[in-house]
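Quick one: co-fold with zinc ion.
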Amino acid sequence: MNLLLIRLIIFAVLLFAGLKLYRMYREWKLEREEADRSVPQGGQMVRCAWCQVHLPEDDALRERGQWFCSPDHRDKYLEEQKREE
Ligand SMILES: [Zn+2]
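Sure, here it is.
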């Protein structure tokens, strides 16, 4: 068999394997980046019980087991609760 042909085949196989590995690496990296985005740094995301807006736990207010984005919404929510009782 022609030595050059064998080298060419080996080169093609290596190139193919390299491309496959590169693609796998890229997919893995993308998945990891997406995972990083869905879990924001600096604590968990919570939802304001009044306006349903999502905000970091650190910026939220907690009252009676509920989260609020501002004292204004906390007061409105508690007022509503009182009316319903
Ligand atoms: Zn709110």
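If it helps, The pocket of zinc ion is lined by residues 48, 50-51, 53, 68-70, 73 (CB under 6 Å).
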